[in-house]
Amino acid sequence: MSGWIGVDLDGTLAHYDGWKGVDHIGAPVPEMLDRVKKWIAAGKEVKIFTARYAAPEPTRSEVVAAIQDWLKQRGLPALEVTNVKDFGMIELWDDRAVQVVPNTGRPVG
After folding, report:
1. pLDDT per 10-residue tile (average), the chain, 109 residues
2. What DSSP state is assigned to residue 70?
3. DSSP state of 56
4. C-alpha–C-alpha distance, residues 76 and 8, integer Å
5. Per-residue b/e over 34-58, b at no fewer than 16 CB within 10 Å?
6. Within 10 A of 6 (CB to CB), how many other CB atoms are there?
7. What is the full DSSP assignment across 4-50?
8. Cα–Cα distance list, 71 to 12, 13, 22, 77, 100 (Å)
9. Spatial separation of the C-alpha atoms in residues 100 and 95, rounded to whole Å
């Protein structure tokens, strides 16, 4: 299956304990960091899916730079950063999501 995997930053890939500014990103969540590294090694496309990207310019550029620097320090490439779903997204890993059974409105599980 081709397409991209969205990974939320705050609370999913990085520890989050409240907003402390553009340049503050928490410590990595080890299990998620390892998962993302494995996906990339397997040739899967991963994007950082974060509300931080909704900031207006020029702050958005600062947000992307801070995130990509954080990723680089943890051995990851400069992944694309977005807050927009499209038809290419095949999965979303997020600390706030509730999965629903398609076309029913009922939560999975």
Report:
1. 93 96 94 98 97 88 96 98 96 95 94
2. H
3. P
4. 15
5. ebbeebbeeebebbbbbebbeeeee
6. 23
7. EEEE-TBTTTB--SS---TT----B-HHHHHHHHHHHHTT-EEEEE-
8. 14, 10, 14, 7, 30
9. 15
Residue of 83, 61, 91 whose CA lies nearest to 9: 83
Alpha carbons 14 and 28: distance in angstroms, whole number: 4
Name the residue with tokens 């992944």: 79
Tokens 């500014």 label which residue? 21
Whether pTM exceeds 0.90 = yes
List residues bridging with 92 in a β-sheet.
6
Place of tokens 């496309």: 45
C-alpha torsion sign, points 66, 50, 34, 15: positive
Predicted pLDDT at 1 = 62
